[in-house]
Amino acid sequence: MERFLRNKSSWFLLCGVLVISVVAIKYGSNLQCSQCSHALCARPNAVSSQIKVRPAQTNPLSARKKVPSARTITRCTVRRKNVAFLKVHKCGSTTMSNILHRFALRYDLNVILPNKNNTSNFWILGALDNKIHERIIPVTPGQNYNILAVETFFDKRIFQTLIPNNPFILGILREPVERQASYVLYHKDVRTKLENQLKTDPYIFRTYPSSAPHMLRDYNFYARKWRMGNFIEKMDNEFDMIMLTEYFDESLILLKRKLCWAFKDIVYMTLNKNLKNTGYAISPADRDKILNTYKNDSLFYEHYKGIFFGEMSKNGVGFLHELNQFKLVLKLVRDYCTYVKKGDNSLIIPKSSWNERFRVDPNECRLMKLTEFPLVQLLQERQRNLYAASSQK
Ligand SMILES: *[C@@H]1O[C@H](CO)[C@@H](O)[C@H](O)[C@H]1NC(C)=O
Ligand SMILES: *[C@@H]1O[C@H](CO)[C@@H](O)[C@H](O)[C@H]1NC(C)=O
Ligand SMILES: *[C@@H]1O[C@H](CO)[C@@H](O)[C@H](O)[C@H]1NC(C)=O
Q1: Would you say residue 355 lies in a domain?
Q2: Which of 58, 81, 247, 312 ranks highest by number of CB atoms within 10 Å?
Q3: Protein residue whose Cα sits closest to atom 14 of ligand 2
Q4: Rounded-to-5 percentages of helix, strand, coil across the chain
Q5: Distance from C-alpha of 136 to C-alpha of 113, rounded to nearest angstrom
Q6: Is 6 exposed, middle or buried (0-12, 13-18, 19+ CB in 10 A)?
Q7: Which residues does ligand 1 sit against, CB inside 6 Å?
Q8: Does the keyword Lyase apply (predicted)?
């Protein structure tokens, strides 16, 4: 050792090691910060802190080998509760509405709903204007609306008037050809004819012309003479996030991270899904034809797909671990909810690196399985009762 210290080059070596250690510590802490770079850390109303998570050995869902990227996860403490969602036709948005509406029930939130009594289109809010307050079920005086997830057209200014406390503006898009196929297969009158045709010819677009409304119509693109480039720039500024139907679970994980939500807030059963959307084919020429008819939708979709992929990759490999865990939780919830009966015990989902322990009860399953009409009706009744109770005081 003495000889080592007397040697000049040993001192250089020691200093070098010291410098490298300091740099490594600094760089290491930067790495931690960059793990925290997704939106929730930047949001003023989403408080977050870093918590070291020790894997719980007794827990079957987290008893796997320690995952390096999961050692430090961002755990936030304040859930964002104000969300305005643009429901877009044939994009899996009924499932998303169901998630948001159950969220409202879970945390006692106020929901924006058309003030119609079981009449035609009672679930549709429609076009928004400055008199929209007269057409929705009133909110308890002194309170605000929190959730918008019924059918309407996009108007950020009015979305913000309806939900005054910094709502998270959420949209959804779907790959145009898949969306078109889903549309054609979904419509009952077309389906019957189609089923006969499919016996001899799987190419569904050989005889059936495309006819779904454009996604951009729901985004209000056609209300004015927008140029695509300008419109995209505007939407980039106005939306906090645009989900993709093809990446629904990935979208939910991203959303969970941005809003500081939990797995219990994003579990779902697929609703409104076509039962028979297999056994068909689309030729390359038909594909091109559809993409050409929906040129603006395609451009719009490609733009947001790029943004979405960028965000996913920024979240690193930890994102994939969380996604994988979520898919497992979804399977447990589906297996339970598909066969559950009233009065059965709750399903317990154990704690993992990405979620606290939580339970799913038969009533949550019932809500999860409700389609749009009965769920909107249930919420309309609830929102009316909340208002009536407040005005009796
Ligand atoms: C719906 O019904 C409630 C009572 O059942 C009534 O107070 C309200 O005015 C009705 N609304 C409309 C739009 O008809
Ligand atoms: C609404 O109307 C439909 C048919 O018009 C009926 O089947 C349903 O029971 C009604 N629901 C309520 C809550 O009144
Ligand atoms: C696409 O948008 C442009 C305006 O940017 C419009 O002139 C054109 O008609 C639209 N195309 C389709 C297929 O809707």
Answers
A1: no
A2: 81
A3: 118
A4: 55, 10, 35
A5: 5
A6: exposed
A7: 115-117
A8: no
Q: How far apart are CA 149 and CA 97, in angstroms?
A: 5
Task: From residue 83, give the alpha-carbon distance in Å to each of 103, 134, 171, 339, 381.
Answer: 10, 21, 10, 32, 21
b or e along 279-295 (b: 16 or more beta carbons within 10 Å of the residue's beta carbon)? ebebeeebeebbbebbe
Q: Find the 149 Cα to ligand 2 centroid distance in Å.
A: 22
Cα–chain center distance at 40: 15
| Residues 6+ away with beta carbon under 8 Å from 47 | 76, 77, 78
Which ligand 2 atom is the nearest neighbour of the CA of 117? 14
CA 226 – ligand 3 centroid, Å:
9
Q: How far is CA 344 from the centre of its chain?
A: 29
**Which of 117, 133, 383 maximizes ligand 1 atoms within 8 Å of its Cβ, making it the mutation to test the pocket?**
117
**Does residue 6 belong to any structural domain of this protein?**
no
User: Quick check: 287 pLDDT over 90?
Assistant: yes
Is the backbone of residue 232 left (phi > 0), alpha (psi -120 to 50) or beta? Answer: alpha
Question: Does the pLDDT of residue 387 top 50, yes or no?
Answer: yes
Distance between CA 94 and CA 221 in Å, rounded?
22
Tell me which DSSP letter residue 169 carries. Answer: E
Using pLDDT thresholds of 50, 70 and 90, give the confidence band for residue 139: very high
Q: Any idea what the CATH number is for the domain that residue 293 is in?
A: 3.40.50.300
pLDDT digits (tens, 9 = 90+) for 51-106: 444 444 444 444 444 444 444 455 678 999 999 999 999 898 999 999 999 999 99
118 lines ligand 2 (CB under 6 A): yes
Domain extent for 166: 83-316
* Token representation of residue 279: 């056994």
How confident is the model at residue 91, as a pLDDT? 92
| Protein residue closest via CA to atom 10 of ligand 3 | 296
The reply to whether ligand 2 has any atom less than 6 angstroms from the CB of 57 is no
Q: Is residue 106 part of a domain?
A: yes
Domain count along the chain? 1
pTM value > 0.85: no
CA-proximal residue: ligand 2, atom 1 (nearest): 118
